[in-house]
Write a structure and sequence with these properties.
By secondary structure, the chain is mainly beta. The chain is built from one helix and four strands; from the N terminus they run ββββα.
């Protein structure tokens, strides 16, 4: 997991947002100021890849 700080003048909201595609969590406790938590994407198990089961 990585994190970074954000200042975005166009993000005038307070709260949290989960980006499913990137697997990032945006947390803005103050308007325009916040943190992005970047989670590592989950890897599929090798047994699922080799057997062809979904």
């Amino acid at each position: 997991m990585k994190n970074s700080f954000i200042f975005a003048w166009y993000d005038i909201w307070v709260g949290a947002f989960w980006d499913r595609k990137k697997q990032w969590l945006y947390i803005l406790p103050l308007p325009m100021v916040g943190v992005i938590l970047k989670f590592n994407p989950r890897q599929k198990k090798t047994s699922e890849k080799n057997t062809g089961h979904k």
